[in-house]
Amino acid sequence: xxxxxxxxxxxxxxxxxxxxxxxxxxxxxxxxxxxxxxxxxxxxxxxxxxxxxxxxxxxxxxxxxxxxxxxxxxxxxxxxxxxxxxxxxxxxxxxxxxxxxxxxxxxxxxxxxxxxxxxxxxxxxxxxxxxxxxxxxxxxxxxxxxxxxxxxxxxxxxxxxxxxxxxxxxxxxxxxxxxxxxxxxxxxxxxxxxxxxxxxxxxxxxxxxxxxxxxxxxxxxxxxxxxxxxxxxxxxxxxxxxxxxxxxxxxxxxxxxxxxxxxxxxxxxxxxxxxxxx
DNA sequence: AATACTGTTCGCGA
DNA sequence: CTCGCGAACAGTAT
Length: 278
What we know:
By secondary structure, the chain is of the alpha+beta class. It has helices spanning 4-18, 123-130, 144-152, 158-163, 173-182, 196-215; strands at residues 23-28, 34-35, 46-52, 55-60, 65-69, 74-78, 95-101, 106-111, 117-121, 258-262, 265-269. It has a five-stranded mixed beta sheet. It has a four-stranded antiparallel beta sheet with strand order 1-7-8-6, with no helix packed on it. It has a two-stranded antiparallel sheet with strand order 10-11. Strand 4 (55-60) and strand 5 (65-69) form a beta hairpin. Helix 1 runs parallel beside helix 6 (196-215), helix 3 packs across helix 6 (196-215) and helix 5 (173-182) crosses helix 6 (196-215). The two termini are 31 Å apart. The chain binds a DNA duplex through residues 1-3, 6, 32, 54, 69-74, 94, 111-116, 154-156, 160, 163, 165, 172-174, 219, 221-223, 225-226, 263-266.
């Protein structure tokens, strides 16, 4: 679920609430969700949050880093003095880890499908873990020219290249579909055949789509799987252009949105606005 | 009841 | 290299 915008919203929220606090305890309810020795993080202070693609890094004052990947259904929900949302979204049968902080608020790592994880890494281990990730979409290094050169490297359908975290990082299925629609590029276009002009368009579409989503608090699609750390839903799902809209009229030309499968992922596009030009 | 589908990623074999 | 597929899991939709 959480793609770049959702992880960024979580990062901004946690930075505001947890920076400077110490980790007082960690309760592990599912062993596979936490990789590393919990003792190494106890009583350590949080000094920095950062994000690369869909991965969140929490820096501690002993040089170690908690690297978080939420995969499909991971949530980070704060449990202190929060009202107005169902208890089940805070601590539930999907709760896998519970952190307690010095103030003493709690942070729940919920993960229905158990794909997500939090790892304890040293700085060099973090570098190794992330060395193959492409530039983050919000990084100054990610430019239209860079996008174009990355697209030039592959003969695969462009949507698969956008989803490949090694070519660039942060794009997931929702934003890949919507950004391609905005740029009027068919998802099956052979990547290296995309023109520089199209790449520039796509660059702006990616940035725009993702920035607007951060402002909207991220996308809470179907099952309320994505929630902000205060338990509230995002609002970007009301701005979906093609994602999960198959059969519904295109917002530009009214043609019904089509759906196909690419590498097993649902792929949505307007057959009129996004012509295959190979 | 059985099958398909889901916001992710990795590894395998063709 | 590329591709499809299954696996890691659990829940909902059809």
